[in-house]
Amino acid sequence: MSLSLREQLLQAGLVTTKQVKKAQQQTQQKRPPGKFNPEAKSEQQIAFQKAQAEKAARDQELNRQRQEKAERKACMTQIWQLVEQNRIPRVESDDYFNFVHLNKIHRIAVDAALRERITKGEAIIVRYGKFYAPVLPAIAERVRERDAESVVDLHAQAPAEVPASDDDPYKDFAVPDDLMW
User: Fold this and answer.
1) What does pTM read for this prediction?
2) I need a surface site. Which of 75, 79, 148, 161 has the fewest CB within 10 A?
3) Could you please report the per-residue DSSP string of the chain?
4) pLDDT tens for residues 143-178?
């Protein structure tokens, strides 16, 4: 068997055992701390695995957000197609029907017959894109399945009746809903 250089020098008597031990200590001090240290390596592996897990979680969240955005876009496209194909034709009129949707006042042009249908609930106003159009109740339900905020619910907007107090001098006079100025 071949002996290491240190052992050969020791056998030849060129170095002492004290010098061999000192040389071994110096070489161990020159080594980087984590290079051959299995504990340090496992800490690095743990940190690497933790970073990979965090990255995977971030990627999964981004993919979920992209998927939700794509689903919303597809839903809005379906609503647009439903309303465009089934809306009640627009009326050229100077008479408008005002309504509140998402805390803003909007209006659409109507004639007397369309106004009557909307107030009776035979036609329901639906938002598609930036526009509003009256549609039949069956179509409005199909739109509501895809996006509930797109349907303007006029009956839910009606304020609750405030009970009249006994000392109100105008309690016998009802305010009509269809005032035209």
Assistant:
1) 0.54
2) 161
3) -PPPHHHHHHHHTSS-HHHHHHHHHHHHHHS-TTTS-HHHHHHHHHHHHHHHHHHHHHHHHHHHHHHHHHHHHHHHHHHHHHHHHHPPPP---S-EEEEEETTEEEEEE--HHHHHHHHHTSSEEEEETTEEEEE-HHHHHHHHHH-GGGB--HHHHSPPPPPPPTT-TTTT-PPPS----
4) 888 888 888 887 665 555 556 567 788 877 777 766
pLDDT at 2: 67
> Alpha-carbon distance 9 to 120, whole Å?
110
Gap between the Cα atoms of 132 and 106, Å rounded: 9
Residue recorded with tokens 């894109």: 129
